[in-house]
Specification:
By secondary structure, this protein is α/β, with parallel strands linked by helices. It folds into two domains: about 80 residues, no CATH class; about 140 residues, Response regulator (Rossmann fold). The chain has eight helices and nine strands. Strands 6-5-7-8-9 form a five-stranded parallel β-sheet, sandwiched between helices. β2 and β3 form a beta hairpin. The protein is globular and about 55 Å long. The structure holds zinc ion (ZN). The site of zinc ion (ZN) has 7 residues, from α3.
Length: about 230
Amino acid sequence: MRDRKTESLRQLELMLNDSEGFLPICSAEGCKKVRVLVDGQEVWIGRDDDPSLYDRVIEHYGNSPDLNKSGFTHTVCPEDGKRLYGEYWEDRKTILYAEDHERVRELWAGILRKNFPECDLEPFSDGGALEARLRKGAGNIGVVITDGSLPIKTGYEIIRQYAQREDFRGVPFILHSTDGPTIGNSVVEQKAFAYLDKIKSSETEFVMTVAYALNHSDSQPTASSQ
Ligand SMILES: [Zn+2]
């Protein structure tokens, strides 16, 4: 128990040092706890856990009330989740979304947040970071949406590698790129759930496809025994 706590604080420090990373923060009024994953399990860190480290989070966050502040991804901690969503909270799913262009990422992440407020959203700016997240296990991942061309590791490689894996069965992968139907359909043949053209498909089509994927995913929620 003590080790997990120590490890969670170490992880938070690493995340604060990584300017490219996103810090998941609880968006409930007055909470602002931050989440780290230790062996695939969520640990939520607040001011009481390590005041000086936590002050760095708030410093990072700034005094801006802007909820779309980049570098942060808004989610809800278990306490606030249960309070706000009741039993529905237990079944909530996480959306992983990888896109390397910042503007494009913010646009679609905003659409996801607006349409799926009951889900956690974790954005990634390269394939390496997305894969690091996938390596922690399928857990409660409801859908993975990825661009095709990404730094470090491409979305195609990730889909080829993970969409067919036994432990990722029930996790839909959506290719969201500008490759056109030929490449798009060939990725679907490699067990991707769907291909969405980043330019040609409308917001409605995007939202409906993600909703359909979430309804068809059957990943098991991670036991969040604290
Ligand atoms: Zn909270």
